[in-house]
Design brief:
The chain is of the alpha/beta class and about 425 residues long. The protein has two domains: about 40-55 and about 70-150, OB fold (Dihydrolipoamide Acetyltransferase, E2P), CATH 2.40.50.40; about 155-410, Beta Complex (Beta-clip-like). It is about 20% helix and about 20% strand. It has a four-stranded mixed sheet with strand order 6-11-13-12. A four-stranded mixed sheet has the order 7-16-17-10, with no helix packed on it. A hairpin with a 6-residue loop joins strand 12 (about 310-315) and strand 13. Helix 2 (about 95-115) crosses helix 3 (about 125-150). The radius of gyration is 28 Å and the shape is elongated.
């Protein structure tokens, strides 16, 4: 029987970190796991829970002639061990410089919030409890950040920060990169593509935009040169041009590092850029589940009772479909409203040319500094151009609505700009 099992293997249910911990628990050295006699007694600090300062003797045997020395101790939560195994450790035993710095920053922030001064041999129990909650929250957000970056298919990285409260990741939200179609809705693939050798310099037949009787959308730096309201027709999977074609901008996805952060003024989550963005550059798409307007009407009533909705009408030629980003979406799900926004909406067509189902792309309206919040106008409406228009659905809001779509209560705007209209709806 044994000879039949040669070459067989099964996946281990433990991670490498858990295997290292098990080796240290059992006092077993393992070269492959990096556990040796020199570090077998080293354990990883997960986070710090509390702090105290005590006077202790510098030697094991306390003599009356010896001077007591003040020593700092930290209550340590050890990775892969239950909280019942937490231990007080002197500062000299801890090599986790980053966690020590983070603990100090959290402590100072919590004392400022409580309007208390630092000092004393022990922390107030309420302060210590808040520090533990903050450490646990940071872990949840770090896991969510890792999940978002493992899911994304675009170059731009996603960061997550929350210094405003103790909220963790939003519940019941799944990150997606492309439209998710609802029941009975299908995206038809384009049948033809361009034959261009140089889509920008020598477009054959006007390239994809010209074939659709429209203008080429981008300049040589990939900046949109059409006014809002005009459609963008990019090269598609049937075109002969390469992936670096200047008429392939939106389809390359998000190029900038962006940060999902919790606002301090009651606007919930927001998004800020970690990099400088030039004017007229593509930033992100609005992605979600495509549903019919009838289904959107039904969901709208439910979302109103919950206090928020993420419905965006695709009414480029007719009001047939809606994008719902409440539970399925990308980073645009978290972008806030502003009456003076730095993002503008464009309708884009690539592999699907059904004018009832455009892709919704956000382009910068001006240069945007690194660290600046990204916003767009939830009531954005563009004057029709040759019977073409792009309009934000009046149901769309992150601030929360009540009542039926035909009878809404006025919602106060919190964008804070000088030109604020004071109300979203």
């Amino acid at each position: 029987m044994a000879e039949n099992l040669k070459g067989c293997s099964v996946p281990c249910k433990l991670s490498l970190d858990q295997l290292q911990t098990r080796c240290r628990q059992e006092k077993v050295s393992c070269k492959l796991l990096g556990v040796s006699k020199n570090n077998i007694n080293d354990y990883e600090v997960e986070y710090l829970c509390d702090y105290k300062r005590m006077k202790v003797s510098p030697s094991r045997v306390l003599k009356s002639t010896q001077t007591l020395k003040a020593v700092e101790f930290y209550l340590v939560k050890w990775k892969d061990y239950p909280e019942s195994e937490n231990t007080w450790e002197p500062r000299r035993n801890l090599k986790c410089v980053k966690l020590l710095r983070q603990f100090q920053e959290d402590l100072e922030a919590e004392l400022r919030r409580r309007r208390k001064r630092a000092g004393g041999a022990r922390l107030d129990p309420g302060v210590a409890s808040s520090l533990v909650q903050r450490a646990r929250q940071r872990q949840r957000l770090q896991r969510w950040e890792a999940l978002l970056n493992a899911t994304r298919n675009h170059k731009g990285r996603i960061f997550v920060r929350n210094d405003a409260d103790l909220d963790g990741p939003p519940r019941d939200f799944t990150y997606i990169n492309n439209y998710k179609t609802g029941d009975g809705i299908a995206l038809t693939e384009v049948a033809v593509g361009c034959e261009c050798q140089d889509c920008l310099g020598a477009p054959a037949g006007g390239c994809c935009a010209g074939a659709s009787l429209h203008r080429f959308a981008y300049n040589e730096r990939g900046q949109v040169r059409l006014r809002a309201g005009l459609p963008i027709y990019e090269c598609n999977s049937r075109c002969r041009c390469a992936a670096d074609c200047p008429n392939r901008v939106v389809q390359r996805g998000i190029q900038y590092d962006l940060c999902i952060f919790k606002t301090h003024d009651g606007r919930g989550w927001g998004v800020r850029t970690m990099e400088h963005i030039r004017k007229n550059c593509f930033v992100m798409e609005y992605v979600g589940e495509i549903i019919t307007t009838e289904e959107a009407e039904r969901r709208g009533h439910i979302y109103d009772r919950q206090g928020a909705t993420y419905l965006f009408d695709l009414d480029y030629v007719e009001d047939v479909y809606t994008v719902d980003a409440a539970h399925y979406g990308n980073i645009s799900h978290f972008v806030n409203h502003s009456c003076n926004p730095n993002l503008q909406v464009y309708n884009v067509f690539i592999d699907n040319l059904d004018e009832r189902l455009p892709r919704i792309a956000f382009f910068s309206t001006r240069p945007i500094r690194a660290g600046e919040e990204l916003t767009f106008d939830y009531k954005m409406q563009i004057d029709p151009v040759d019977a073409e228009s792009t309009k934000m659905d009046s149901n769309f809001s992150l601030a929360g609505l009540t009542g039926s779509p035909k009878k809404r209560l006025r919602v106060e705007c919190k964008c804070g700009v000088e030109s604020c209209r004071k109300y979203l709806f």
